[in-house]
Each structure stands twice: as structure tokens, then as C-alpha cells.
Write a structure and sequence with these properties.
With 466 residues, the chain is mainly alpha-helical. It is built from 22 helices and no strands.
Length: 466
Amino acid sequence: MTPELGVGIALCAIFVLFAALMYTGKLPAIVALPLMAAGLYLVAAVFFPNLAETYPGPRWLGVFKGFISVVIEEGMPRLWHYMIAVILGAALAEQLKTSGASKVIIRWASELGGDNPTVVSLVLTAVCAVLFTSLGGLGAVIMVAGIVLPVLLAIGVTAEVAGCIFLLGLCLGGIFNPVNWQFYITALELETSQVTTFAIPLFFLFLIVSVVFIVLNTRRAGASSFWAAAPPAEPEPQVGVAGLLTPLVPLAILLPFYGWKMLLTLGGMLHWGFAARFTMPAWDFPINAALFIGVLWGVLFMPRPAQGRIQGLIRNMFDGISATAPVAALIIGIGMIIRVVWDPAVAYYMAPLINKIIPSSPITYIVVFTVFAPLALYRGPLNVWGMGIAMAGLMMTSGKLPGVAIMAMLMSVGQIQGVSDPTNTHNVWLAGYLGVDVQVFTRKTLAYTWILALLGLCLASALFVR
């Protein structure tokens, strides 16, 4: 065993240890994520031969400088823009709650759902899937979830299941999001037709898994939830139509921008004639700005608070910050993990390990990547938003697998990441919004997404591996 391979195995052991501690509830993620980031960086940096090029001086001093710079200085604020979206989304939610608009929306949702929460859950999953073929990012999640989740809760779906249903809809639509396709086309030098050849059947496999999950988890949904239970004698708040439209305002602003861009991107990929007549917009409407406009809309059109509109806004902002403090703390830890796994020192030692396990036959392709599929969690080696980008490059240069097979593998195991990964900012926000532990989503969905990954790998093996 080479020293590089030994360090790579040690890094995997650290990853598995902290992932297991979080999954089993032995160590909260708010503590485990920074410790995982620190452990990964320190083990890699101590042995990294090129450390002195970036941090000159004695090795111990270079390790110390690197730790301060990479893990703390660059890692902690890495996702600061997501924190702004979280705060604005929380302020918007507080406006709906304090004005009474949420009670009106929930009552309508309860009447709509009636005695069939399964059907409503399926419809809302489809709505989420359609929206997220063009939308993306935490801000979009906050906007859509702020509408969908209260409806699910109002028809008696539990908070844990409601969060899982939303995640399934989000990732189901993400399979057809052209922005995600563009990543594979650019990074792995593929044609659009190669991506669509796999994405379309994977979508239908995902749809089947999602329907099974929803049917099995909503059959016993009752007629009430912890948000829907309001005293019957309490008069319904008098909220105007404009106020009730508040949660839709950010979406109404963004959908034309993102929908048009998605259409032009898809048209360019598929060589549609009309797409060549238009220039791709060079500017996207900022999601945080759309959320802020939604907050201001609520200030203007919600019922006037007793203390005045300005004081009401200030209170909602303060309450929103207070409610999202645990989420912000988790996002800091996630930023530290992301920065560390992208560091050259970590990638240097993961490369020999990845080269050892790259399969080359159809059967080993299915077996190896199915067994290691959970490495898509916690920003692991198969997570395209973690180490996965570097690992995909290593697989390409090894020549053992064609680029299209690597794409299909990443897309298959990526569904584990998209739905079940507790280090996703959208998972963290959903857990905070619903008042549940973020690991709940992992435990409830991992079996389903792992089976989906297996089905996708079987399909990919049949199509692309010889």
C-alpha cells in the first residue's frame, strides 16, 4: 500500500465515522460537520507534499496557517448568501403567520384536500417537479416550500413526510433542469442527446419510486396537523386577496426570467430553430431581491399590525433571524465541509483510492457504485457538489469508463444526494422550517433513493458499459 492510498483510506474513515455519528444521532450535525471538516483537512495537510508552496515555513506552521485559512476564514462564510435567503424567507413566513394569512390558506387547503391527502400530495409533487425544471437554489426552495408545505400539513401529512415529499418533487424536476444537464455536457464533454437518453428513463424510474413513497406514507394521514389545528371559535382573520398573494409574489417575479432562460437553453441544446433568434439573457433576477420584494409586498398589503407596519416588519425580521439561527449554524458547518473537500490536499489523496475502485465491466459497475452510492451523502466522493467534480475528472482520465457512463452514475447516485443528504442547504432549511431534525429526511428516504440509484445504475450499465 502506498502512503497516498493510506492517507486516502484514513480520510474515508473520518468521513464514514462522522457520517455514522450524525446518522445515528450520536452527534448533532451542528457539531459533527465542523469536526469532520477539521479532521479531513488536518489529516490531508499534514502529509500533503505541496503544502509549502501555498503556506511557506515549517510544516506545523503551514498546517496551522492552512487550517485557519481554509477551514475557518474561507469555509465559515462560504455560503453567506444562502443565509440572507433564509432570513428573508423566515421574515416572509412570519408575516403570513402574524397577519393570519397562513390560517386562511391552510383552511382553504384543508377543504381542498378533503379525505384524500394522497392525491393532493401527488399533485403537489408534480407541481414542484414542474417548477424545479427551471428554478434552482435555496431561495427558490424557500419560495415554493412556503406555499406547498402548509398545504401538506393542513391535510394531515406529518412534518417529516411533508418535507420528504417536497424533496422528491424538487429532485424529480431537477432531472430535467437544463442547468444540471449543462454541467454534465461541459465537464464530461458529452452531447445533449447522450444526457437525454439517460435522463428521460431515469425520470420515470424516479416517478415510480416517488409515487410508492407517497402512497405508503400518506395512507394514514389524518385531518389535522400541528399547523392546521386552530380553535374553531376563533374568527377568521380578515386578509385581502392582495395579502393572500404574498407568498406567490417572488415566484411571479422569477418564473418568467428562469422559464425563458430554460427554454432558450433547452432550445440551444436540442437545436430548435426559434432559439437561435434570441440572445440568452446576460442577467438573472436575483432570488434574494425577489424575496425582499415579497416581504415589502406583505408590509403593504397584509393587515396593519397594532404596532404599525414598520415596527411589524422589524419584529418579523427579528423573529425570522431568531427562528433560523440553528439553520444558519448548520450552513456554516456545510460551508466548511464544501471548502475542505475542494482543497487540493484532500483531492490529492482521494485520487489513488478512486483509481483503485473504478469498475470497468457491466456487473462490477452496478455492484461497486451501488455499494458506494451513500458516498454521495455528506459532500463525499460521489457528490457532484462536494468531491464528486474532481473524482469525475479522475475517472475520465483513467479511461476505464466512457464519459456517458460516468454521467449516468453521477446522475443515479446524485438522487441520493439531492433528496437524502443532510448537508444540502435545502434539507437544512426544510428541517428548520418544519421543526424536525435534518437527519429525519435521510432516514426516511435513504432506502428509496438507494433503490432508485440501483435501478439507474442497472439502466446505465445496459446502455453505456461494455
